[in-house]
Design goal:
The protein is an alpha/beta fold. It contains 18 helices and twelve strands.
Length: about 425
């Protein structure tokens, strides 16, 4: 069914929430049990972007085990080889052509956009059966205004990576407060070391700011935007003090300069998403093995013990799915195959069992149970929410935040730019905004 923006906007105005009255497809079987009512096999399709690299438990092998254990619900998985943005474009085209997969991998920041385009099914009732299988923060990221559109798969809670051996040489520990962070950063900088990296990235900085309160909410059917919260002000102030004191690294995160700074011992600490654990290992090469550790963030940004999400994705039930209950049943099973998904490099959202730290990770991080640390971060994640078109906000934010590095602007300016860009973007979607 083609997307009708006027119908969605009218619905938004008619209800006291962001919910759109999506027409549900048939989901429950006649007898209330999984499988066809007359013993027919239900066919489901799953589109994903998981790595499926050598050494991993392949998605098709995981799905084959489901099919063997659930003979009445057969799933066919297909890997999409392309960017997340390209996959969203494909899904939009497929939904309009009534040819979409039943379930598909969707980034948390992308869910509001596919929602307002009428691309997903409301599976609130079905998903509620499995809510206690997942951490609360990731589960909430599969919701728009309290309605659920799938189940979470992996997460990106922000944590702290640091070189414990280098910290010991400097006589410092992981800072517990903002004041300690700034003090230890200055001490490290005097020795040509950096214990943080300033990244002009809205995904990361919004996660830090949003841990103490969301930027986007909905009231009376209208979007309420506030990217300049007290949390945002704290984040801006902390990074501005570090920049002004030349006490933080500013090398580009995904540039060879980052790898070099890790290898030569210049960068000995960085704030990042949990999924960066193997990437930092790659950056280090054969240096620092056994010296690095993972820790929770200190109270550096006015968040207390809370952290926020940077990345991660869930699997949504797509518009046109004729068997919603069975689709969600599959998603719960698949997304709780913890060991298999960990092999894919994911930090799983499921809480049904503890993920085992891969041996190579344990070696690099000094025998630490890294996955247990990430589970703690998952439990500490605030309930941040995204808005449709957040990628546009991120681009404008990054441009403004970059200027703070050379003193052409301030970190706070980026949050102001995010405010204006957020409102403009929502209006471009013809969505009502409360001003």
């Amino acid at each position: 069914m083609a997307f009708n923006s006027k119908r969605i906007v009218a619905s938004l105005a008619a209800v006291a929430a962001m919910g759109m009255a999506l027409t549900g497809c048939g989901g429950d079987t006649a007898n209330g049990e999984s499988g066809g009512s007359d013993g027919d096999v239900i066919e489901l399709t799953y589109l994903h972007r998981l790595p499926d690299s050598d050494g991993m438990v392949l998605v098709n092998d995981i799905v084959a085990r489901w099919n063997e254990e659930h003979p009445n619900i057969h799933v066919t998985a297909t890997k999409f080889d392309g960017s997340a943005a390209d996959m969203i474009k494909k899904l939009e085209t497929d939904v309009k052509a009534d040819n979409a997969p039943d379930v598909a991998q969707i980034g948390y920041s992308e869910l509001p956009e596919v929602f307002i385009k009428g691309m997903v099914e409301d599976v609130t009732e079905e998903a509620a059966k499995y809510e206690d299988h997942f951490a609360a923060g990731p589960f909430s990221l599969m919701q728009v205004d309290g309605k659920t559109y799938g189940l979470p798969q992996d997460t990106g809670p922000v944590v702290y990576f640091y070189n414990a051996a280098e910290f010991e040489k400097l006589g410092i520990s992981v800072p517990e407060t903002k004041e300690q962070l700034i003090e230890y950063s200055k001490k490290a900088a005097e020795s040509g070391k950096y214990i943080t990296l300033y990244q002009a990235d809205a995904d990361l900085l919004s996660a830090l700011a949003g841990a103490s309160g969301p930027w986007y909410t909905v009231e009376d059917g209208k979007w309420v935007v506030n990217t300049e919260t007290e949390g945002s002000k704290e984040v801006a102030d902390t990074w501005q003090q570090l920049l002004d004191a030349n006490a933080t690294s500013t090398v580009a995160r995904y540039d060879p300069a980052f790898d070099k700074s890790v290898q030569d011992g210049t960068l000995i600490g960085t704030v990042g998403a949990a999924w960066e654990a193997p990437l930092i290992m790659d950056s280090a090469g054969d240096t620092g093995v056994g010296d690095w550790r993972v820790a929770q963030l200190g109270d550096w940004f006015g968040n207390g013990d809370k952290t926020g999400p940077d990345g991660g994705s869930g699997v949504a039930v797509m518009k046109g799915c004729e068997h919603k209950a069975e689709a969600v049943e599959f998603l719960d099973w698949f997304n709780t195959q913890v060991a298999d998904l960990t092999s894919q490099g994911l930090v799983v959202a499921a809480t049904t069992e503890a993920a085992e730290t891969p041996e190579s990770w344990s070696e690099f991080y000094g025998g630490q149970d890294v996955m247990a640390e990430f589970a703690t971060a998952n439990a500490n994640m605030g309930e941040f929410t995204y808005m449709p078109g957040f990628s546009t906000v991120n681009a404008a934010f990054k441009e403004a935040a970059d200027k703070a590095i050379d003193g052409e602007g301030t970190v706070a300016d980026a949050f102001s730019v995010a405010q204006k860009t957020s409102i403009d973007t929502l209006k471009n979607y013809n969505l009502p905004v409360k001003e």
